[in-house]
């Protein structure tokens, strides 16, 4: 048995559904457009209430392979290229990361571990955020800041994007993954991931 939706009526007890064979329906009463009905697995007789349709053409192996290749090309185009570690070396095994507008100091080994573990700009941002912000700071923040409702009360969050440390981290992520964070989808994924990290920090403090 399977369910189909009636697309147009052909009679009081009959309907038209595209891309299915002609089978009898398992429905008592009148049909209406948009109604979901159950279809039997036997051919209809002249006495059955039926839906009329065409059987869909099966995809050939060539078609399936072509679709898979197109999907792989699309995914490859979305993959972010990773540059070698870039930073300014300081004393005591510290490095400076970020841009001329915003920069932070971090241990060289700490930074290299974060870089090695990151497959895209979002990953690097999340790993570096943990090195520059305490759990308490993250719990009191989110990406944009502002009033939020946590299910019990309304609170005001600090906006990480206004913090120079976070600005430096964003700048470094773009340096290590050139061309990243340039479209709305990537920026939304980053924003959602950062907000989720802040929510998890708040939960851990409860």
Give the terminus-to-terminus CA distance.
50 Å
What is the H/E string?
A: EEEEEEHEEEHHHEEEHH
- β content, as a range? 15-25%
- Classified by CATH, the class of the largest domain is Mainly Alpha
Strand order of the largest sheet: 1-5-4-6-3-2
C-alpha geometry: flat
CATH topology of the largest domain: Arc Repressor Mutant, subunit A
Looking at the chains present, what oligomeric state does this protein adopt? single chain
Helices and strands in order:
Layout: E1 2-5, E2 8-11, E3 14-16, E4 23-25, E5 36-43, E6 50-52, H1 61-78, E7 88-89, E8 94-98, E9 103-107, H2 108-117, H3 121-132, H4 135-139, E10 141-142, E11 146-149, E12 154-159, H5 164-176, H6 184-204
Parallel strand pairs: 3-6, 10-12
Antiparallel strand pairs: 1-5, 2-3, 4-5, 4-6, 7-8, 8-9, 11-12
Helix pairs in contact: 2-3, 3-5, 3-6
Walkthrough of the structure:
With 206 residues, this protein is α+β, with helices and mostly antiparallel strands. A six-stranded mixed beta sheet has the order 1-5-4-6-3-2, with no helix packed on it. A three-stranded antiparallel beta sheet has the order 7-8-9. It is flat. The protein has helices at residues 61-78, 108-117, 121-132, 135-139, 164-176, 184-204; strands spanning 2-5, 8-11, 14-16, 23-25, 36-43, 50-52, 88-89, 94-98, 103-107, 141-142, 146-149, 154-159. It contains six helices and twelve strands. Helix content is 38%, strand content 24%. A hairpin with a 4-residue loop joins strand 11 (146-149) and strand 12. It folds into two domains: 2-52, no CATH class; 88-204, BEN domain (Arc Repressor Mutant, subunit A, Orthogonal Bundle), CATH 1.10.10. Helix 2 packs antiparallel against helix 3 (121-132) and helix 3 packs parallel to helix 6. The longest helix is centred in the C-terminal third of the chain and has 21 residues, at 184-204.
